[in-house]
Design a protein that fits this description.
Elements lengths: L2 H4 L13 H23 L5 H8 L3 H25 L5 H21 L3 H29 L2 H56 L23 H32 L3 H8 L1 H17 L4 H19 L6 H17 L2 H8 L7 H30 L2 H24 L15
Helix pairs in contact: 2-5, 2-6, 2-7, 3-4, 4-6, 4-14, 5-6, 5-7, 6-7, 6-14, 7-10, 8-9, 8-14, 8-15, 10-12, 11-12, 11-13, 11-15, 13-14
């Protein structure tokens, strides 16, 4: 299909007239899906030292437990993206929650390293069943003028899950032992599963866009799809290039302790949590999707350029906060912007594949920029590379802004089942 043919106007939504309480409850449930996903992902991190004697491995071994989740998530995110539009989003979410509770309970209870590794990989797979379907329901259940705020709250939920797990799992482990601390995750997931099974609404009926005679079908034939993938990859590679290596920069250049450097860098995540709902509200304004994403990308570029000189530590702290704001503006709003450009039956594929390449970019940041540091021994080279990648992202985004009046307008996709 052509780009103009696949974008169709929004049909009436049964959920659009729902009471405010029902909408708030649904948003909270969808945010809980992302809380579960990120809590399961990061729950092992604060227990690395305790997990070494439990499994009889070194730090590389416990680090692999974290990587297994990321690996499983990346693989199944692509699979869910390819087939997700053929299945009911509510069914996928309930399935993901049930399997997440099962595999996290298996991980909490085992002392066998190989079994724990398999459980973590399968947990990552269940994360793919939570992220994309939650985003899909957020797009399809709510009116276009509400989606930016909804996506912003969902993004805050993802950050809250990571922060909450880093705090609450160690508290549980200190009181109930490692098994007890890890068991808080399947218990929490089970509670969300029960609530979602009772209260989570279904998506509206699916409507298909009309076929255009002689037009090529499939998102792969659309240039803007590949532009969006490039935007996701370059943006996350640049962002996590800075966030991954900022603590090391602070310890090597300013003599910070590891704990102090980590706390300093966490300002970006705190800024992300606060800014996500706010940029979501801005995204609901006329042409807000494009302007928020473009503005966030431009802000990121300015930050990467500004950190190249050895600035005073106060300036670096402000830059860190602004990077968190730019990440909020270029994550959920970008997924929303992209999802609304494509026809019914394509939203889940687009969002999932963008999330997959973004995950790959974020994961590669440690390796690629580690090699850059090994050869240059200068953090400024890393920051310049991040700025260059951010500039490339802006180049890929500009056509959406410049040609908005020529058929690349922001339009809502039809409801999806």
């Amino acid at each position: 299909m052509s780009g103009r043919a696949t974008m169709i106007e929004q049909a009436p939504r049964p959920f659009a007239n729902a009471q405010r309480g029902e909408k708030a409850r649904t948003i909270a449930l969808l945010a809980s899906m992302l809380i579960v996903h990120n809590a399961q992902r990061t729950g092992v991190v604060p227990l690395f030292t305790d997990l070494q004697p439990r499994f009889g491995v070194d730090y590389a071994g416990v680090g692999t437990l974290f990587a297994a989740y990321v690996f499983g998530y990346a693989i199944f995110q692509a699979i869910v993206g390819l087939v997700g539009d053929r299945f009911n989003a509510r069914f996928l979410l309930l399935t993901g929650l049930a399997l997440s509770a099962l595999f996290s309970a298996l991980f909490a209870g085992t002392r066998n390293y190989e079994l724990a590794l398999i459980a973590r990989f399968l947990l990552g797979a269940t994360g793919a069943f939570l992220y994309t379907p939650a985003m899909k329901l957020g797009i399809t259940l709510f009116a276009r003028t509400e989606r930016g705020r909804v996506m912003g709250i969902l993004q805050s939920g993802a950050g809250l899950g990571a922060v909450g797990a880093l705090i609450l799992v160690p508290i549980g482990a200190s009181r109930f032992g490692i098994t007890g601390g890890l068991s808080t995750l399947p218990v929490f997931t089970l509670v969300i599963l029960i609530a979602a099974a009772i209260l989570l609404p279904d998506a509206p009926p699916q409507e298909r866009a009309p076929r255009v005679a002689g037009a090529r079908a499939g998102i792969g034939w659309r240039p803007d799809f590949w532009q969006l993938l490039a935007v996701s990859f370059t943006g996350m590679l640049a962002t996590y290039g800075l966030l991954t290596w900022l603590p090391t920069y602070l310890t090597k250049t300013f003599g910070y302790s590891t704990v102090r450097a980590g706390s300093f860098a966490s300002a970006a995540n705190i800024a992300l949590l606060i800014a996500a709902p706010l940029v979501g509200m801005l995204a609901d304004l006329p042409h807000g999707r494009t302007l928020v994403v473009l503005g966030g990308s431009a802000l990121a570029f300015i930050c990467y350029v500004a950190i190249v000189p050895k600035e005073p530590i106060a300036v670096i702290f402000i830059i860190t906060i602004l990077v968190g704001v730019s990440l909020a503006a270029t994550t959920a709003p970008l997924m929303l912007f992209a999802g609304e450009r494509f026809a019914a039956g394509e939203t889940a594929r687009v969002v999932a594949l963008m999330a997959t390449v973004a995950q790959i970019g974020a994961t590669l940041a440690g390796v690629i920029f580690g090699l850059v540091l090994a050869h240059s021994n200068r953090f400024q080279v890393v920051w310049v590379a991040c700025a260059a990648l951010s500039l490339v992202r802006l180049v890929f985004l500009l056509p959406f802004f410049v040609h908005r009046r020529d058929g690349l307008r922001e339009k809502a996709s039809a409801p999806i089942g």
